[in-house]
Amino acid sequence: MNEVGTSPRRGGGYGRVTGHQEYLADIKLPDMLHAKLVTIEVSRARILAIDTTAAEEIPGVVFVMTPDDLPQPMIRFGPQFQDRPVLAAGEVKYHGEPVAAVVAESREAAEAGARAVVVDYEQLPGGVFTVADALAPDAELVQDPGLRPGSAFADTNIIDEKNFGWGEIDPGDADLVVEDTYQFPMVTHFAIEPHAFMAAPMGDGGIEVWSTIQHPYLLQKMMAKMFEKPLSKVRVHAPDPGGGFGGKQIPKLEPLVIFCALRAERPVRLVLSLDETFQTVRRTAAEIRVRLGFDSEGMMKFSDIETNFLVGAYVDIADRIVSKSSYAAAGPYSIPAVKIIGRTIVSHTTPSTAFRGFGIPQISWARESLIDEAAYQLGIDRLEIRLRNVARYREPFIPNEEADGDWEQTIRTAAKRIGWGDPLKPNRGRGIAIGLKSGPTTGLSYSTVRLLFDGSAMVYAGTSDMGQGARTIFAQIVATELGVPMDQVTVVMGDTAVVPYDQQTSASRSSVLMGTAIQRACFDIQGKIRAMAAGLYQLDENAIKVEPGILLLPDREVEMTAVMQEALAPLGGEVIGNGEMRKDKMPDHPLGGTAAFFEFNCTASEVEVDMETGATTLIKHVTVGDTGRSLNPNQVHAQDDGAAIMGLGHTLMEHYIFDDEGRVRNIGAIDYRIVTSMDLPIEMHSESIENADGPGPYGIKGVSEGSLLVTAPAVGAAVREATGKVIRDLPLTPQRVWEALQEGK
Question: Which residues, other chains included, contact 131 with Cβ-Cβ below 8 Å and sequence gap of 6+?
Fold first, then answer.
């Protein structure tokens, strides 16, 4: 039953659309308590006292957790730097940072209790809210230098500085040098399901945690370390989350909820509102300076890029975002000389975390926009200048990395679909841009597959299905390799006490890394059934050939399930296979390892701009990705369309708005604009280039991030052609476009 390249009914889809699926907020444990965060309406303040008296008198309130109730000095945690406190440690460092938590018998009582807590504080003047603020010679320090002993940057707001590059940059080698600085805003993930957390003490001294987390095993590891428990005593439940986009990768408020549960000796649940989620996670903002050199034929001679990422009050995973995106900042081009500086900079704003694209959209916005500027000055077509410089298949373009696809084919396909070169109507413009993101550089995934006696199968995987369709493609692999009907394959996820280890669900890795582990588990089963057949039919194993779902005997073919049933009868039973996929760390590589694959994308867009209002209408939007092979074409197209629409958000409208004191002024669905059906392109097309040249099963590569990598520069270039105006700051709101149109009038 070859399911490769088909689009069967989506696994888990029925539960999602009917409401039968239980999200974390739907799970109710016996004797469960509810928690609510206490915050103050400032971005910077010294906490003088917290009066919980009135809150504790409210019926139903069990207790109020304050910093004084936690181990001292305040426990801090984080995936890279242990800088995030469980509760604000003496000082609030961003608008919305929790200073206490109320635990009550009902959510209503917890909310009433939170309103009744009195926080005495001294609002601190100033604050670091921009890159300029952070790097000023007299800048206030966001973090205590004592948190980074031994760091050369401890007395600054720079967490670290990355330096990459090769060759020697000599502007004298270039006939044209272009340079400019671009701004990318803070945006939020806006997952349909807000963040939620639940914890309960276990009778054997362990801890049970429920979380909307993409990395259950990372949460297990961090909590085991923090609470000094063996891994076997920390059980993580990770129900399928309602969207993640990177925002649910790293633990956030789980430690606080665990402390509350241990104190209460009862389960405690915390479900954030959408407003609170806005103040919990966001994408890194960035200021990017790019200088590029070209010869008269449009060939790139050098690329000099400086990125300053504003990551918020605590680092989370942002320093890894800076290093990984900066490493590939020069893009998918063959360039003889490159210099890249990437800085991780803290600020008095919401901490940032991983976000679909992992820093590449920020840098691509700047680089691709400046390539357009060079094309205009050289009199070379914007498509042609990219075709001349893009790396060819298997050509090294970054040290230790080579192009893993026919990227020129991807570019030409997108250009054809957008009608590049066709005449344009008045006030219209087209843009095209290319970009790539490195897939996982390390990885370790285990899977167990059980082929049951009746011919059905069960798959155990530590991956989180947050809407990307992992359940479906895993079932497709098993159905193909074992000859089991798709509707008889059950995929089990989301419980560290049940499923084997998976390093993480990120970097578009699941189809390649976990998919390979599952395929190898199926191979293990195939080998065992082959041995069964040799015994049953008195054959040499070497005389039996294995193909997906069947065994080829010298005189006939038989189904694997039939062989298993004959061999196991009358006792019944099952055949169990285990598979592993690992990509080990490379100590000498700047990122710890080469890319398992690249997500390469070409995006092209045609827009029409209203010259009176600055409003931009997307006439046609095309995105073409190099998928290697599309295991499930419908899911690939859905991921590409979703990523493109998400990219249109940060391109046209999405951004945090702050007042002068660093408070977020557009929290929530009413004041923070996201793309709706009214904003979609009139025509939207996504296409895949399939050459079966990927490292995963059947030649697949990872997908789901490519289509937003270069949305902004493609749309920005189209707006430039339509208006004749260059805009370097996102988003391209009607007001911003209108203001550009007024310049020079």
Answer: 287, 308, 310, 345
Predicted pLDDT at 12: 83
The answer to whether residues 345 and 259 belong to one domain is no
Residues 667 and 561 in one domain: no
Question: CA angle, 58 as apex, 57 and 60 as ends, to 5°?
Answer: 115
Which residues are CB-neighbours of 75 under 8 A, at least 6 positions away?
85, 86, 226, 255
Q: Give every CB contact of residue 472 below 8 A, 6+ residues apart in sequence.
A: 8, 10, 11, 12, 632, 635
- Contact between 111 and 97 under an 8 Å Cβ cutoff? The reply is no
Residue 162 lies in a domain: no
Token pair in block for residue 214: 């993409």
Question: Are 302 and 167 spatial neighbours (Cβ–Cβ below 8 Å)?
Answer: yes
Give residue 708's identity as a one-letter amino acid code.
L
b/e burial code for range 515-548 (CB count within 10 A of at least 16 → b):
bbbbbbbbebbbebbbebbbeebebeeeebebeb
In a domain, 17, yes or no: no
User: Does residue 519 register a pLDDT over 80?
Assistant: yes
Q: Note the pLDDT of residue 19.
A: 86
Half-sphere exposure in the Cβ direction for 24 (13 Å, CA): 28
pLDDT digits (tens, 9 = 90+) for 375-393: 999 999 999 999 999 999 9
Q: Is the pTM of this model over 0.85?
A: yes
Q: Does residue 96 lie within any of the structural domains?
A: yes
For the chain, the average pLDDT equals: 97
The range of the structural domain enclosing residue 738 comes to 285-440+589-742
Query: pLDDT tens for residues 191-217?
Result: 999 999 999 999 999 999 999 999 999
Q: Which comes out higher in pLDDT, residue 416 or 9?
A: 416
Query: What CATH number did the domain enclosing 231 receive?
Result: 3.90.1170.50
Do 721 and 688 share a structural domain? Answer: yes
Q: Are 268 and 333 in a shared domain?
A: no
Beta strands in 108-152 (DSSP E): 118-123
Which sign, positive or negative, has the C-alpha torsion 651, 652, 656, 660?
A: positive
Residues 6 or more apart from 480 whose CB is under 8 A from it? Answer: 1, 2, 3, 4, 548, 549
Domain boundary among 278, 304, 326: 278
Structural domain contains residue 228: yes
- Kindly state whether residues 403 and 301 are assigned to the same domain: yes
Q: How many domains does the chain have?
A: 3
Mean pLDDT of 219-227: 98
